[in-house]
Amino acid sequence: MNQSIELSLEQKFSIRSFSDQVQNMSREQAQEFLIMLYEQMIVKENMYKSFLKHEWGLDAGEMSA
Description:
Layout: H1 9-23, H2 27-55
């Protein structure tokens, strides 16, 4: 991770809380949770790409469904 980008105290707390929750999960729960989390990360990435394309005017020629 880029060391020049520091996490806020609130973000560090959130990570610690997340860690505590994961520690209390069974292996199966943790695996299911990880798959759901990964899916959400991909959706978030697609949303960012879509927003950037829109903001940069790269979607002007595309047809809406």
